[in-house]
Amino acid sequence: MKALLVDDEVDILEQAKIFLQKEVEELNVETVASAEKGLERLKEDEFDAIVSDYQMPAMDGLEFLETVRKEKKSNIPFIIFTGKGREEVAMEALNLGADRYLQKGGNPRSQYGVLAQAIVQEVKHSKIEFEKAKVEAELSSLVKGSNDPIYIVDENCRIVFANQAELEKTGMSFEEIIGSKFRESHPEKDARAFEKKVRKTFDTGNSQRQEVKHEETGRYYDRTLSPIKNPRTGKVDRIAVISKDVTERKQREKELRESEARFRRFFENEPEYCYMVSPKGKIIDVNESALDTLGYRKEEIKGKPLLSTVYAPSSQEKARKLFEEWKKGKEIKGEELQIITKEREKRTVLLSAASVKDGEGNVRYSVSIQRDITERKEREKELRKSEEKYRGLFESVEVAIVVHGPDGEILSANPAAEEAFGLTEEQLREKDLNFWKGKLYRENGEPMEVHEFPVSKILDSEKP
């Protein structure tokens, strides 16, 4: 803390410096013997406070004060400290902007103790006022430049301040809106609801919220009413209102509700097994198709871990790895797993899973869909058995058998056919039905045309 002490009496300067610095350790006092030198030092350096005598040659303390306040445009704490005070001088000093007017005299320790405390208090007050003004300027800039309508009302709902966004919303000028009642620029229904919120804010001292629709523009606003208390009385005497435009948010919420309704219809009516699963792996919901197959009631399965409740032990490790991959953002599609019912029946499913996210991009839950392929797997198993049986017969029968396509191309031949024609199966595949031309004869001994071959007639008639 740095103070400039101005007095034409050098002895007093030295005495004051010693006492003041002893009284307040962090105080650094610099002395000059005239107001003119004081002005020079103010140009060269920065000080936290000025203490000046009143009666000095050339320029007295009041002239020095006036110069600092008007010409220098400085709000530095200024204390008049004089031994020849009069009431009219004190009044003039305060009118010119002095922060304190103290008289010299009496016990040095006592008078300089009072002066030291006055310096400390005024410097502290000055810094507080500076920070307050800085914050107020920043807030004013934010309020004026905000895209959200902001205004202040008194307890009679008269508007005492409005920013540019509120002026644009109401279509009024600053001069028109200031002093007008809220209901003069807003619909009657809105005004009644707003007045109730204002009264509640004044009565409780608590903030209130209100969502409204601006009828002319169709836009939605989320109003926050915040009490402004008088620092002296502690009572609410104003209310600051911030109206945040939430139209886009409302639209997104509407779209989300519609989307969720569509999804819910799909979820409930989908014949596949559908689950909603939390990021922690717990079942949030399950559709009727899955419940019917698993044999559970919904309340039995909700909240349970999906892996251990639904999947067979042989598939749980694979399901766990797939769940971890899903949590990392991978989409799961067509993974074959086994589920197990309440009655311990195993069924085979193809699993697909995708994420459902909120507006911020955070995963809310996964939608897991299981397609039951148990019957298909059984049919495939039976088909393989049938094919193996057919292959055994095809290979072992002593009758020549040739398999061909609809255009007559030879697809395969058994060993008996290879022996009958003297060709390997690979050589026969390079031929078609014309290969038999001239090798089959009618009863009268004439060669048969290809279209007369018994196998061709079977193909043309499409009979087995």
Summary keywords:
Rossmann fold, alpha+beta, Beta-Lactamase, disordered C terminus, 464 residues
Concise synopsis of the structure shown:
With 464 residues, the protein is of the alpha+beta class. It is 45% helix and 23% strand.
Question: How would you portray this structure in words?
Answer:
Keywords: Phosphoprotein. Pfam families: PAS_4, PAS_8, PAS_9, Response_reg. Residues 333-385 form the PAC domain. With 464 residues, this protein is an alpha+beta fold. The protein has helices at 10-23, 35-44, 61-71, 87-96, 108-145, 164-170, 174-177, 188-204, 247-269, 288-294, 298-301, 306-310, 313-327, 374-396, 415-421, 425-429, 454-461; strands at residues 2-6, 28-32, 49-52, 78-82, 100-103, 150-153, 159-162, 208-214, 219-229, 236-245, 273-277, 283-286, 332-340, 346-357, 363-372, 402-404, 410-413. Helices cover 45% and strands 23% of the residues. The strands form four sheets. Strands 2-1-3-4-5 form a five-stranded parallel beta sheet, sandwiched between helices. The chain has a five-stranded antiparallel beta sheet with strand order 7-6-10-9-8, sandwiched between helices. Strand 11 (273-277) and strand 12 (283-286) form a beta hairpin. Helix 1 (10-23) packs across helix 5 and helix 3 (61-71) runs parallel beside helix 4 (87-96). The longest helix has 38 residues, at 108-145. The protein is elongated and about 155 Å long. Residues 455-464 have low confidence and may be disordered.
